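Hi support team,

I'm filing this because I wasn't sure whether my run with zinc ion finished correctly. The job status page said complete, but I'd like someone to confirm that the output block is well-formed before I use it downstream. Pasting the exact inputs I used:
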Amino acid sequence: MRLKKHEREQVRLKYGGHCAYCGVELGPKWHADHLQSVRRGTSHRWEGNAERPQNHNLDNMMPACAPCNLSKSQMPLEAWREFLVGHVNSLNLYHPIYRLAKAYGLIAETAAPVVFYFEKVTNDQH
Ligand SMILES: [Zn+2]
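And here is everything the job wrote out:
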């Protein structure tokens, strides 16, 4: 399942050296993510163990920063998008310092849709 060095470089440059999801410039410890996961496993909404080796190909590989890759895990893209949207609720429910910072006007919630970097880049080209 390991990518060869030149394949990995091809994946890294897919979005100009940026994380395909959040758009951060990738550092040396970036991850090659499977857009459609190869394995179903322990993730937030995804159960089972069916291997899908057909998803291990360069077209399906996305350059990702570690936080995005670890958060997405084996979730399908739309499930992950919903999961990310839910982070604001989680912050409000479980993190008093977030609520306090919000009360002091340090944080403004925007209800902006989650648009991944690769979606923005793709749209800009049209
Ligand atoms: Zn990212």
